[in-house]
Structure formats: structure tokens, C-alpha cells
Amino acid sequence: MLECYAGNGDGDSLHRFFYGMLIRDVVSWNTMIAFYVQVGDFKGAVEMFRKMQDNGETPNRVTLVSVLSAVACLGALAQGRWIHGYIDRNGIELDENLGSALINMYAKCGCLEGAVQAFDETRKKSVDTWNAMISGLAANGQSLEAVDYFSRMESASIRPNAITFSGVLNACSHGGLVEDGSRYFKKMTDAYGFKPDIAHYGCMVDLFGRAGLFDEAEEIISSMPMKPDAAMWKALLGGCRIHRNLELGEKAGKELIDLAPDDHASYVLLSNIYAMANNWSGVHEVRTAMWDRGIKKPPGCSSIELDGVVHEFVVGDAAHSQKKDIYIMLDEMAKKLKVAGYKPKTQEVLLDIDEEEVKQSSLGHHSEKLAVAFGFISTSPRTTIRVLKNLRVCTDCHSVMKLLSKSYNRDIIIRDSNRYHHFRDGSCSCMDYW
């Protein structure tokens, strides 16, 4: 009955039935946790896991895989480490499923040393285990390491699958490894007999677009046996933004809106291209279309986990209980940034605003800056700051985080909607290539 309600998405009936049960076994709890993960309520999944333990029920491998998935999406590293410790304390062997879930959790929390440890502890490594490691390294900007793991995988006689090639091609794209990416794309067909799917073609468009090779990117799109999807146009649009190819960017943006008319990112990306060209009538036209279709851009939100508690911030947030100390720290950060030669990148405030001061104020209160300021005042020196953001980090915040990592001698890790950024000693793992 629980599985029936969960499968039909009937949360109300599911909860009534569950809490009406006189006896609940591990399968019952697993069904509830999996439902929370299924509907994207990751905090609810973790809370259900805690209730399960409070009720004296012992988790099994299925439980742990589900809750690790929730923790990964929350970026809640402390909770993930607790689960890893639970696995160790109870002598639970890491099989391919549990090992892969643990690797994925650490990678999504930006903790690659934990991912490597989990990988090494997994005795029987399946293709999924290797894929989790390769994809995790790629997402965290460790492109050469991801390519190395692919080579090690082949040496271990583990046959890669389509997901493996998506991971390694993604690594090449984020690392600017154009020749390697082209070679792996060819190898996928010649050596392993895989026909590239739209995700693989999308990786190649992203690879060429990021490198500014737009002729090659358009050739891929025109020669592939299927129509480009929204993800592909979005990748090309990203490359156009990096290299300021505004003409092609406009074309890609319009194609993207046609394919994803309900996605706010489609409109925002095209609006950004127009703003970069100072085409404010174009910006107005795009935003009018958003308004007419009822599309709203979600506010930027950043979260940071401290002592098992997740603190969330939005731009200009004044609701946090420590807001006074946070804004004092923001002022201190601004002074250090000024000494370091920082100049606000006001072009990132893509609005038709002339007042430079208003633009700078908006940039200074972006949610990730508030989260980092809170991290600075709440942790001891040299502690790594880990922030999760729901939108793409802007160029200004990216520059700020590089300078702050050096000024405060702190590692700062930001996971945004696009990728992971590891800031250390004034540089970023993405090499400003994102």
C-alpha cells in the first residue's frame, strides 16, 4: 500500500497510512525516505531517516543509498560524513551501489578526498563506481584526474558505457581539453561501438563552444542525426557569453526559448546576451515575454551547513539571527577586497540602471557573499567554507571569491547550478573557464 501511494504521488494518503501502522519495518521506512527523495524534499528524507533511528529501526543498504542521495542534493557534508562513519562503525561493506552513492555524495559536497577514500574502500568496483568517480572529478574541475581515472578503468578491464563517455567528455569540456575530447568522442564509436546520443553531441558542442571554436560547434549541430535539444543550445549560448559572440548567442537564445518556453533560464540567458551588447530594447522585449507568459526567475539562494544545520541566504538577506555580525563582516571583506585591487564588475547587474552605486550595492549583497561572510564569522581560521547556490555564480562573485580565498587564507568551495568552484590562494579550479 505504501508503495502504491508513493508511486501515485499521493503524499497525504501515504503519510496517513504510514503513521497509522502499528508495526513498521525497514521496508516501510525505506519507502517513506525514497518518496521524499522522489519528490525533491531532501530535508524531509533526512528527517525521516532520523525518525527511523529514533524508533529503533536499523537501516539497511537501501536506506543508506536513499539518504545519501538526499544528503548529496543538500550538499550537507557533515551529515554525509556521519553516514560514512555509521557504515564503518557497523562493519557494512561498501558494495558497488553503496560505494557509488558515497562517492557521489562526497563529490556533490565538493569533498574530493572523501570521494577518493570511498572509491578506494569499495572492494568490488562496477562501471557505476568508476562513473561516479569520473563524473565527480569532472564536475569539480579536476579534468586531468577524471581522464586519468578513465585510463585506469580501461586498464582494469572495466568496459565503459555511454554514461562513462558523457563523464569523460564533460571533463574535457570543463578543462578545455579539445584534442582529448575529440579523441574520446571518436574512440567511443571506433573502439567500443557506441552510437553517440544527444548528450554526447551536447558535450562536444559545449567543448567547442567553451573553447571559442564556433564553426566546429555548429558543424556538430548540423551533422548529428537528431535535432538539437535545449541543453545543447544552452551550452552553445554559454560559450557565446564567454567569448562575446553576441550574434550567434542571440540565435542560440531564441532557439532555446522555442524549445524551453517555461524555463526561466532560457529568457535570462538571452537577456544577458542583449545586456552585454547594451541592447536594452532587446532586454525589455525578453522580460516582457517572460511577464506575459508568467515566467519568473527564482531569487538567488545560497546555503551553508554548519554543525549539521543548514543556513540559507537570499540576496540582500536581513532575516538571519546574526545579520548584524554578517554585515559587519561584509564591510571588512569589502575593505580587504579594495586593498587587493578589486573593482566591482557592474556589467553583471544586467539591468538598465545608470547609477553605478546602486549596481555595486546589489553585487555586494549577493547570496553567496552573505553565506561566505557567515562562514567566516562562524568557523575557525583556515576552515574550508562550502556554499551551495541554486543559480549560476556571476563573474563578479567569482572574482571576489578568488581574492577572498587569498586574503583570508581560506579554501572556498561553491557549488552552483552549473558546476563546482574550488577557490584557493587567489585562483579557481575552473581556471576561469566556466
UniProtKB/TrEMBL annotation:
GO terms for biological process: chloroplast RNA processing; RNA modification. Residues 341-434 form the DYW domain. It comes from the Eukaryota. Pfam families: DYW_deaminase, E_motif, PPR, PPR_2. Keywords: Repeat. One of its GO terms (molecular function) is RNA binding. Signal peptide: none annotated. InterPro entries: DYW_dom, E_motif, PPR_At4g14850-like_plant, PPR_rpt, TPR-like_helical_dom_sf. PROSITE patterns: PPR. PPR repeats lie at residues 25-59, 126-160. PANTHER family: DYW DOMAIN-CONTAINING PROTEIN, PENTATRICOPEPTIDE REPEAT-CONTAINING PROTEIN. This is DYW domain-containing protein. It comes from Coptis chinensis.
